[in-house]
Amino acid sequence: MSQRPLSPHLGVYRFGYTMSLSILHRITGVVLSVGFLVLAAWLMAIAGGAESYARMNAFLGHGVIQVLLAGWLVSFVYHFANGIRHLCWDAGWGFEKPQARRSALIVVVAVVIVAAVLLYLFFVPLAVSP
Amino acid sequence: MSIKSPLGRVLGHGSAKQGSSHWRIERMTAIALLPLTVWFVWSLLALPSFDYDDVVVWMATPWSAVLLVVFVLAVTVHSMLGMQVFFEDYLHGPSIKCITLLLNNFVHVLTAAAGVFAVLKIAVGGN
Question: What is the pTM for the complete model shown?
């Protein structure tokens, strides 16, 4: 069983940047699954009343956690944008290599812009207001 | 009738006849999550503040509660299917794979139950 060959044989391919987007989709998916546990914990903290919510907010306000929250936001934007790309492929559109490279660039540019805007909207007002 | 050899059937090789529904449900939840996640992020941005009272008022609104429940369920199914493939691809020991896949399902069901319960408690619990 353990001796069976495993596909795909990643080592035999010349590197292309579309590969990075592919593995990033999986990585951000796993990251978001972990983030979902935090989201559920946040909802449970709200249900637990004002005191448990205050404790949760204090925890989320911690510097390290703030960085993680920012990471989850960026991961979400990436998984969202590249997910649309995957759904297009599932619908049969954009399979040619030039199209896949172009859609990859569109995803990267869109993620940088949208993630920057969302990071600003979520984190900068919080830093400014008391 | 099956074209599989008796040995292949006993060893469980080949299609388990569940691959297409796994694929289809992953895409269905992905499509559902496009508007749901946009709504969720927009809702958080639209909150007057993240103070307890403001968050509770938002969660207790009927449509917010309904959409939050659907959102939690859609994320749960999408995440459960995605993590299942992740574990299947990278864990190779038969027992560790089996245990992890079992735990994957348990954790996701628990998370979904917690998320739905929390929203319903705020929405219909009458604080």
Answer: 0.89
